[in-house]
Amino acid sequence: SSREAARRGHRPGLARRAVPAGSFIRRAAAAADRAGGGALLWDAGIRRARQR
User: Out of the domains of life, which is the source (predicted)?
Assistant: First the structure.
C-alpha cells in the first residue's frame, strides 16, 4: 500500500507552489505516517526538490 500512498501524496509542482512549504511537508509526513511509514521518502524527495 506504500505505492498507493505515494500516488495519493504526490502532487504536481503547481500544488506544491500553491501550498506553503511547511504545511505541505506536514501534510505529506502525516499522510505517509498514516499510510505506513513513507515519511522518510517524502522528506528525501522534498529536500531534493529544494536543492534543485
Answer: Eukaryota
Domain ranges of the chain: 2-51
- Strand residue runs (E) in the chain: none
For residue 8, how many other CB atoms are within 10 A of its CB?
12
- Give φ, ψ of 45 to 5 degrees: -65, -45
pLDDT in tens, 2-44: 666 566 665 555 555 555 667 777 777 777 677 665 556 667 7
- Give CA 22 to chain center in angstroms: 11
